[in-house]
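Narrative of activities, Objective 1.

The group set out to show that a structural description can be obtained from nothing but a protein's sequence at a throughput compatible with the screening campaign. Below is one input-output pair from the validation batch, recorded exactly as produced.
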Amino acid sequence: MAGRKRAAAEDTTTEKRETRGSKAARTEGAKPAGRAAKGTARLKTSMAQSTFKSRAVPLHVSITTTAPAPEGQEPAPVDPGFLASTALTPSTFSTGSFGWKGHKRLVVELPNAQGDGEKVHVTMTINATVIGSKDVKEVEGHEDDEKEGTGEHAAEETFGEAVEPKHGGSSGPEAKDNPPAGEEQGEKTVLRYMRTLETEFGIGFDTHQLEELVTSTESMSLDIKQLSPLEKGELPFTATPSVQRHHGSPSRLNPSLVTAIKYSIPAIYLVYLLSRNVVFTVPRASSLGVKYPLTSPLSGYYDDPASEFKDDVFPLRLQDSWDISTDFPYPRTLAYDVEEGTWLRLDVHPISGDIVFDMAGDIYCLPAYSYSEANLTSGITTMAIPVLTGVPHDADPSFSPDGNRLAFRSDAGLGVDNIWVMPWAAGGCAEMDVPAMTAEAIAQRDYDASLLAQGVRETEERRLRRLSQEGRLAAVRVTNETYNWVSDPRWHPSGTKIIATKWYFSRRSLGAGEGWEYEVPTLRDPAQRRVAVNSGRRLVSRVLPLGWTKTDYVEQQIGHEQFSWLGNDTLVYSGNVQDGEGAFKYSKDVHQGIYSIFARNLTYGEEEVLVDAFPGGASRPTLSRDGRTLAFVRRVRDKEALVLKDLQTGTLRNIWHGLTYDLSTIYAPMGTYPSFAFDPSDEAILIWAAGQIYRIPLALNALGERELGGTPKPVGFRAHIEVKLAETLRPTTDVRELENGEQRLHAFTQLALDETGTHAVFQAAGVTYVQVLGSTSTAQRVPVAHAGATYYSPSFVGGSNDLIIHGRWSDTYFSSFEIADLGTGNVYELTGLPMGRYFSPVISGGKGAVRTLAFVKTNGDTLTGDVVATAQPGLWVGEVTLPTEATSSFSIPVTNIRKIRTTISSSDDALKLDFISSGKLLVHQSNRVFAVDLSRGADEWGRYTEETLANGHSTDELVYSDTTHGAAFVNFQQVYYVPAVTSSTDLWSKPGKAPAGLARLSLDGGHDLVVSGDGTVVGWFLGPFLHTLPISRLAQCSQAIKADSQTFGVGCVTRLLDVTEVDVRYESEVTRLRREARAFSDVNVVAFVNATILTMEHGDVHRDLISGGTVLLRDGFIDTVGKDGEVSVPAGALIIQTDGGYIIPGFIDAHAHWDGTGVKYPATSWEMETFLAYGITTMHNPSLHNSLGFVERARVESGLMIGPRIFHTGQIIYGASDYSLHLDIATTEEAKEALTRIKAEGGPASWSYKNYNLPARASRQRLLLQARKMNMACVPEGGMNFDWDQTYIVDGMTTVEHNIPVSVLYDDLLTLYSLSGTGSTPTHTVDYGGSWGEQLLWATADIPNDPKLRRFGRHDILEGLSESTSRPANSIALFNVSSSVAKMVHRGLSAHIGAHGEPPLGLMYHQEMAFAKAGGLSNYEVIRAATSDAATTFGLEESLGTVTVGKLADLVVFPAGFDLIDADIHQTKEIRFVVRGGRVWEAKTMTEVWPVKGRQQTLPPFNAE
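Output recorded for this entry:
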């Protein structure tokens, strides 16, 4: 109970609390009963507070009831009635004592004589103090007695909690809790309280009005039991007066004042409520610090979900020293003025009313007069004053309660978002103006900047000068995160700490927020500026969904955010409640409500929903300065509303509908809405909307509730933005060189070694090759039975270097096996296998000819469908007889074919088989190796004996040597080896957690990890480089391995490797085209005549348009372009009459995804054919397997299947916690390794990489610097993080993939983005900020019945593409995004068309073009984005993107009658011919027109019809 006097263990008597008057009248020297007299020794404890805190455990208390004993009898010795139990948590008190405390609400039934009972609600608070733990001095007088009795609980009090003392002045325990009662109730008591507060503590009240009121209500009862009791889980949003300081004095409240306020609250509250209908709020004074528990239990039995979460895996290694401002060059400066801004997060100074806001990565200040009534009425524009500038991206400004400090978020230094604090000058904006420099100082600044741009290291003198010029010289770090990041700081009322949102990755890069408290270091003592890494304290954890355990905590993708303080110990925050299963979902319905607003009292751990999510959500909670009004934003129909909730009455009001749409539909570390604030007097709200800062006037109604007080008006401002820009990363690649002449293959897969590790066999884009290790000779093609077929999954027959078994693929009949004899060149086909998908065939060793064959059968997949031969996947075995010199047949039957019941995972990407004896089979999977004993046969349940030999903690590939009993594995994309492995060895490479003896084998990484048949050699591929290492050599580096706890001896081990460069070449597309033209048509020129040609050469529709034109193609290139009568068509050319139809360059899908790359079998891809059928001749995939993506590319380029030319980034460079993808890039060397892994697999065809939410800007900059040296573009994952997206642009990344999450951009970002040189691929089909565009197509088109789609695609996929209802148009943000992109295109931005691989493939690309036009682009500008702009951005313009002589012949030809310039752009999907590298197809059926007329490729039977 609030105001309750501490019941110390030594206190055995009761006393009535004395008023100030009665205390003054006491006899001098009188002592309260039960108190030690002056000079009497008190009990002391020798235990220090720190010792107590480290040893104390919770106490558990049972609360029981005992029935009253009959008169004359003793009470029952045993309590018969259990009521409740509670836990007391170890605590310290503000007076210095320590002990335990707890809180419990319960219901007690009071029986009467009739046996009936009346139930009462009881609030019980227990404080158990360790005797003598309070170290106090003996002080003359009685102030010490009063302080000891009340002061401690003034600090622990939950303000506004219902107090439940006994009515009237009585003796007994309850009497200690009461203010004076009985004859002192009424007028005299109230006025005495008021006048005492006014005269002694400087708190002013209108006592004349109160006196008049009390005089007229003589019978008014002041029984404070009239206050409504709290319900379970209710938070104390009631009562208590706010302090009015005389003369504007900022004096702090002292304990006596706290005591006076506490005991005056009930009377003041009731009287003043009746007089004014106004409820006071407790002053949030700095002296009222509450010490709440380390974890905040929701009950005595609450178990914190994060209690076992150690957060000790990522980052894997500490970052090398780096400064984003000085270790990365910014040779350009972009300067411009704006009068509007995007997503301006602001705060208002608590005294002066000055506004601080962030814009384009800098922080600005507007003086309070900028929103004076005179300025607003006159529309005066005020110049914003820069407060923080420079390379670091600064945001989220927040003033301290006293206004003398500013907290903010910045990526200064390492480039991870952290919280900083800096002093705020008493003179406000004017004194904080950082650019206020002389001409000489400006010249010095520019000179210093030029030195940095040239790479000249910064001296200490220059550094200090730069920091001063940027305004951050006195800034002090509050947080020190190096992987997770922090945002949205909000000050505690004490001004000594902040609450902020700390963001955590899961396997997905969608951060989940937690509420963390951080101590704010002093600005005076430089020694305190060092902040420990990951310091701070978690106050609000993520919540585990039903069925989850604490070990799953790291994968909870949903948390809480936007924290602020209500009083000293209550937090208000918002959180996503729609994604309740722990996984973030895109494209949610904002109208159904996504975010709710919560409040949690940290002292008692009680949580309450303040505002429910439905309807329209509720986020960005912001409290008035008196704590009574909660402001927030929500969607209301097609508007965004500013809403006020009165926390006293519960009234909700939508006061203004002029806000910009919130971002609650997405993951929004930038805030679901920009932060806003009340002015110092709570008479207005300052908030950003529609590019401006608005002042929203407020007024009080008769009940004291705030409501709209007038017309909202914009605060006119002008700001000068000056941004340092890096050079935009723009590689150049001449694709013509990749398609003319013999081409080299760089990517290989499915590696196997022979018995002793001297020969290797592998798949090379559907062809099997063998390589002698250590030899400089080229790899040899393995002889096959069917020259036109594709082959895969080879291995050496056990004990032989000459016999190879591998799979042959047929799109009609699926898998077959062949054995090739390298010595004789003979090929033997295995017969007797039923139709199915088989891989990893291995044949056991031994002396006889009869051997065991083992292989894996899989069910359906993306390319071959789920229709044919899908039954009984798993491990299969049979017997074969190997050929001998006497064998005359070239067919070998497989006998006794049977499935072996095991725990094998047939879908495992790294699955491979090995025999270690004739009857024992090793199964290597990505994270487990086990042996199957075939010789013992099956048990009674049909299962074979298995023995687990190795387990990977987070491995992508894992192989085991039965000879050395060691294991090699791929982890975090590097290759490692561990000796002496058991099934309990935790195999991974995290420093500090790795197994003993771990050695890193690879310098830059590797894949397709294998061991030789005898287990003595380990091997892997990286591009065309085949690495092998005899395991015995590792002994030479044993000391280096032991001494290197970070990279495990890699510097020594890599010197031991044997590296064989594999040289495999194939016939290029152009060479093959010429050959086939001679063989099948005897024509080498194709002429498209009478065409309307849109060349896209000049960027101007009038200059690019040729009516009645001819395009000649020769040998895969564009030979001539011009008017029909001006172009000479050679005799014998194939002439194609277009009848006036348009010819444009082939489409470039700048952001394409597809799923078939990882299929184990070299099946013909319906995905590739579908893309091409819709005119897409070039695709760029920004996330694909490093090697398999280039294997698929080579299969297209070598003619094994048709499709667009493929480029891709390789595997994403991922910041989140997915073990297969995560990379720190903590050093320059790691940046080089990461890009080398990609570049090695594609050679010159590898020209891009993707930064995917790397949290450290230092990591991103290291990659950019390395990419410049390797001729690579960077196409980062945008969309998710508004602030990171801006740094991508500033740091010169080639594009931003996906839209910037704020849908409507204003001049600050429109100008920055447009003039930076960075391109945009917005992917409207999966727009980030609302419902996805693909859903709009699904809801409005009959996708399942589209004839062309059904011809090329899988029907089961198509039949799933429908929406039963269409979302309201205002929930589809892509139209706003499209408008912003169009504005930037008109300012000079290069935009591109990327359909994200969304189904239906091909058609969705044309829908993306329609979405691009919807924002204001012309048809011509859309076509330019789809062709020439994409080619230019990617550095392919020498070969692609325009209808230009000498470029590759990639064309789209439309039927006659379609006006491409002015007609409905949806008709672009109606294509007549598609030309890719000079080869011509009829687009509706993909029947080849030239050079092999009538040819169609065969696809697997993936449809049931």
